[in-house]
Amino acid sequence: MAEKDGPWSWVVLCGVTFMFFLENGTMKAFSVLLPDLQEQLSSQTWIIGSCISIMTGWGCLLGMFASYLKSRFGVQLCIMFCGLVSSTGLIVCAYATNVYLLLLGIILTGFMYLQENIALGIVPEYFDKYYNLAVNIYGFGSGLAVVVYPLLVQMAQDHYGWHGALLLLGALTTHSLIFGALIKHNKAEKSLSIPLIRDNPQREIDKTNFILNLKFLTSILKRCDANLLTDPSFIFRVVLPGIANGYTVSGWLIYIVSFALSVGATRAEASLVATTGGIGLMIIRIALPFLNSIMTYRQLLYASSITMAASLALMTLFQSIPMLSVMSMIFCLGTGTLTTEIYIAARDVTEDDQYINAVSWFHLSFGFSMIAGGTLSGIIFDISGSFSLSFLLLSVVSLLTAVSLGLENIWRAITS
């Protein structure tokens, strides 16, 4: 076992940070390529946008099985397998000739979210004293991705087309296999005994199979800590903020480049608008250790919710490239804070052994709301012909975090 907060812990953290970099960067890459995909595949905006959001939603659904899979097959094997599948998915997307083949590739690419979920679950095994710092460091990877990916993808698209850009992303994703080999459990784990269904020579197996399947499902639910959903604090501090964050992040992440193009930006200027958001993420990762020392995570959740709502609303009022850039940066200051503080809240209301499942439930709520955000925002644009109404709805939904914390205060006052 490696010492907590020791040298090897930081090596593992580099691997987790790289996976965060890949996950956030890949989704941003698809948002940059959205106009090209829409044109080449002769599809509507909401269809391509919903396909991109499904990548996250499907991946987060897979994340519910992270605890079971890592116990059954080990962390290293799971991470390396997910890296291989997700890179294959990007290659399939590169050769897509219709929406259905693109969707198949996106579903395979979604395995990188399962990979990230498994990797995140072992961070508490390696960090104790510097846990909050570790959260901010691997979160920094997401900000770096939003800065780097739009520029790199646009450059690759200009030189090699969208096919070549996706092939390069697939090649980059294969590097997660190397980092997966560096990560392993840092504590003894109890073996998970799941009954397997075997053929009965007498073929009297109907009742036996039913009982064994019931035990299997019960074991999975127990392993996923479904009882967390009965904890009001977990719902108010993790699940509902996850829903709000997923919906708003999906709408901004997928459509901000198209929004900038719709107000007269060039392709390079639209990519720079997305890049300024990444700069905001990087700034907040640097500032959060200080903010966490002077404010509670509940206060930061309130502040980030209001910041996101205000920035999205202002985008719809002042539709210019400078305003979109500034407001994107402020929006990402908010969502970067919100995401990080949700992870801290999840650890606060759970034990270490439950943390990976707490993260899985958060990612599940985040993923499904991302599908809703990507789909509904696109539908509203196709109907209205403008992104203003879509982004205004994003602004309203982002206030759900502040509302959920207020409801928790009311619930505590009633129960006390």
Structural notes for this entry:
This protein has 416 residues and is an all-alpha fold. It contains 17 helices and no strands. The N and C termini lie far apart (43 Å).
Radius of gyration: 21 Å
- The helix tally amounts to 17
The SSE order reads: HHHHHHHHHHHHHHHHH
Q: What's the mean pLDDT score?
A: 82
Task: Profile the largest sheet.
Answer: none
Could you estimate the helical fraction of the residues in percent?
over 70%
Indicate the low-confidence ranges by residue numbers: 188-217
Structural class: mainly alpha
The first-to-last residue Cα distance is 43 Å
Provide the descriptors you would attach to this structure in a database record.
mainly alpha, 416 residues
Brief summary:
This protein has 416 residues and is mainly alpha-helical. Helix content is 81%, strand content 0%.
List the helices and strands and how they pair.
Layout: H1 7-40, H2 45-62, H3 66-73, H4 75-94, H5 99-109, H6 111-121, H7 123-126, H8 131-173, H9 176-180, H10 206-223, H11 232-262, H12 267-294, H13 297-317, H14 321-348, H15 355-384, H16 388-398, H17 400-415
Helix pairs in contact: 1-2, 1-6, 1-8, 1-11, 2-5, 2-6, 2-15, 3-4, 4-5, 4-6, 4-8, 6-15, 8-12, 8-14, 11-12, 11-14, 11-15, 11-16, 11-17, 12-14, 13-14, 13-16, 13-17, 14-15, 15-16
